[in-house]
Amino acid sequence: MVLQDILDKTFLEREDILRLLDTQGDEYESLLRKALDVKLLHLDNHVHLRGLIELSNICRKSCLYCGVRGGNTKVTRYAISEDDAVACAQLAQRLGYGSVAIQSGERDDAEFIDKITRIIQRIKEIDNGSLGITLSLGEQSEATYRRWFEAGAHRYLLRIESSDEELYYRIHPHDARHDFHRRLDCIDTLIGLGYQTGTGVMVGLPFQTLEILAGDLLFFRDKDVAMVGMGPYIPHPDTPLYAFADQIPSSEERVKMTLRMIAILRLMMPEINMVAATAMQTLDPFGREKAIIAGANVIMPNLTPNEFREEYLIYPDKACVSDKPDECFSCLDLRMKGIGHDILYNAWGDSPAFLKKHPRES
Ligand code: 5AD
Ligand code: FES
To answer: Does the pTM of the predicted model rise above 0.85?
Structure first.
């Protein structure tokens, strides 16, 4: 089939996706252009912000790719206080970000769960609940997810990392703490509780094939998630997976493959929210802009106090580590205008895909 016929289809099959994942040259450019057209048609040229608070790098897990994995003794562990986390959210509100995302290494002890609950409640008190709250705090019990939802969080990001069980266990230890099926169950629980739920994968992992990447895209569609975050894998020297760093595509190709993934998913799910990951900008100075032009519509500027950012290096050379929050603010606005996009300030920026299914929320 000629490429244009695939791009014009309303429902992509597995073999269409495989063909699009393999595009080069002019065909690759056509894919990205079509994805931008589809995005502009459904979501306009709007970009939504989520001010990112990297709450703590203390983690009970040991994912084989992650720089802050529990097993890495080179990291100085920190936890931002409740007051400082709320202050970050106040800054987000002053800057007009509309939403915050709280991310942390994974913990499930009562002290942590209570702290998060209080932070959510206090953020909801800012300006009469004007800030949206996304959580990215890993696998938790249904009771905990419910508690945080009732406290006022309404979005949750839990990347599946890879939807292929075999690859999942090549990038995670095969033990009770890193159970593929528990992760799937958590995603279902979050959706069931009414969270606007997001998932995602890393692109360019060792052992990852085009078939696996096609499976990831089909997984997102099958789960009918509201948000997706995909970024290139960046090998971290202090992690076990670094042993395979010579077996992955070049950083340029990992960026391109991530752009293909974003563009194809935009064709498959025109109304979901998709993040332009910071990891894109780490590998390419215009990585985030490229992701927006390929179909993404959300950016997560970092609000973490600078003293802690150096310790939240899930991958090396993370972008913007030394920028101050207000510098990020003006830099991003200019960068988005430069590519014909407008940041929508003071808005939650929920995905139309989710709002259609949950009209009460609008
Ligand atoms: N390279 C790229 N992304 C990574 N993440 C963790 N480690 C790496 C890495 N080395 C991503 C995971 C996780 C998110 C917070 O960061 O997908 O879900
Ligand atoms: Fe912390 Fe994976 S290493 S959740």
So the answer is: yes
Q: Indicate if ligand 1 lies below 6 Å from the C-beta of 315.
A: yes
Each residue's pLDDT tens digit, 262-319: 999 999 999 999 999 999 999 999 999 999 999 999 999 999 888 888 888 888 877 7
Looking at ligand 1, which atom is closest to the CA of residue 66?
Answer: 7
Determine contact, residues 221/353, Cβ cutoff 8 Å: no
Residues whose CB falls within 8 Å of the CB of residue 13, separated by 6 or more in sequence, listed in order: none
* Closest protein CA for atom 3 of ligand 1: 233
Q: Is 233 in the pocket of ligand 1 (CB under 6 A)?
A: yes
C-alpha to C-alpha distances, 3 to 34, 49, 258, nearest whole angstrom: 11, 34, 19
Residue whose Cα lies nearest atom 18 of ligand 1: it is 159
Distance, in Å, from the CA atom of 48 to the CA atom of 67, rounded to the nearest integer, reads 28
Q: Which atom of ligand 2 is nearest to the CA of 66?
A: 3
What letters, b where the CB count within 10 A reaches 16 and e where it falls short, cover 262-273?
bbbbbbbbbbbb
362, pLDDT greater than 70: no
Task: Using the mean position of ligand 2's atoms as its centre, give its distance from the Cα of residue 22 in Å.
Answer: 31
Ligand 2 geometric centre to CA of 137 (Å):
10
The pLDDT value recorded for residue 58 is 97
Which residue lies with its CA nearest to atom 2 of ligand 2? 63
Residue 269 Cβ inside 6 Å of ligand 1? The answer reads: no
Question: Per-residue pLDDT tens for 219-273?
Answer: 999 999 999 999 999 999 999 999 999 999 999 999 999 999 999 999 999 999 9
pLDDT in tens, 183-221: 999 999 999 999 999 999 999 999 999 999 999 999 999
- Nearest ligand (C-alpha, residue 138): 2
With beta carbons less than 8 A apart as the criterion, state whether 67 and 239 touch. Answer: yes
Contact between residue 231 and residue 203 where contact means Cβ atoms under 8 Å apart = yes
